[in-house]
Q: What sequence folds into this?
């Protein structure tokens, strides 16, 4: 098995890691057929279906292509993602079309790792993605990334839900702030988009299908509105609930790589 690794502060690789939540092919806002506002029973039915799918995924393995548009150029890269829910682990590998690695990323419950092959550096930190804002457009919850890479939305827990306009379900915190907005053609249909309004982030799901009874998208387009950047992931193969050996999630650094703690860097700044 290959080791877990990733590419951060350098050239195209950082742009890609800013990847998982940034550039790529432009995609129109998903069209939601005109429907009525959902009543509370329909809202609960729709949310229960999404959460049920979340619970049914114990592990996943996915390969595909990552389309990235930078300035006037467009790059097509390879992406491999896999993870387990218990214990929580997520591994992402992005490489050149000819196979050379750009970066590997490993996310766990608390300790995270990112290996940059171009820089020959291994970055570590504790906590969520807010520690690496240069790579991601916002503090996206790690567990939400785990689901989005499967082509499925992941919902916050304990929020109040309502349907402010036809075809939409808003999830609000105790202060009434909208943290997520789901776009659905109907209460019994899979979501076609998910927004994080406070992050300026929109995820579109297309080419929807079902694998092992689990609905998911074979194409995921992510747009970060403040920067205007996008990425598009096209799934080639998706496998749910297969066996993934523990050594896959072991970190083996190539010789000569420097280890840098982002937590130590943060403490120095303060």
A:
């Amino acid at each position: 098995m290959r080791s877990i690794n990733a590419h951060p502060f350098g050239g195209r690789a950082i742009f890609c890691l800013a990847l998982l939540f940034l550039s790529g092919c432009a995609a129109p806002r998903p069209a939601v057929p005109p429907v009525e506002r959902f009543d509370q029973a329909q809202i609960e039915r729709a949310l229960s279906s999404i959460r049920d799918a979340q619970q049914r995924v114990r592990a996943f393995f996915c390969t595909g292509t990552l389309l990235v548009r930078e300035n006037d150029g467009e790059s097509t890269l390879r992406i491999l993602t896999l993870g387990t829910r218990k214990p929580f682990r997520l591994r992402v590998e992005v490489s050149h079309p000819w196979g050379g690695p750009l970066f590997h990323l490993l996310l766990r419950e608390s300790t995270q790792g990112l290996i940059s092959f171009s820089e020959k550096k291994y970055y570590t930190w504790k906590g969520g993605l807010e520690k690496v804002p240069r790579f991601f457009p916002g503090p996206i919850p790690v567990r939400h990334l785990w689901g989005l890479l499967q082509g499925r939305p992941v919902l916050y827990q304990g929020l109040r839900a309502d349907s402010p306009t036809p075809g939409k379900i808003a999830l609000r915190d105790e202060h009434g702030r909208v943290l997520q907005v789901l776009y659905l053609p109907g209460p019994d249909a899979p979501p076609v988009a998910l927004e994080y309004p406070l992050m300026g982030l929109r995820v579109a799901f297309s080419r929807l299908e079902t694998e092992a009874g689990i609905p998911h998208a074979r194409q995921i387009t992510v747009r970060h509105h403040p920067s205007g950047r996008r990425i598009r992931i096209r799934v080639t193969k998706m496998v749910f609930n297969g066996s993934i050996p523990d050594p896959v999630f072991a970190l083996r650094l190539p010789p000569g790589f420097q280890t840098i703690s982002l937590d130590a860097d943060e403490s120095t700044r303060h």
Summary: Confidence is low (pLDDT under 50) at residues 1-28. The longest strand covers residues 59-70.
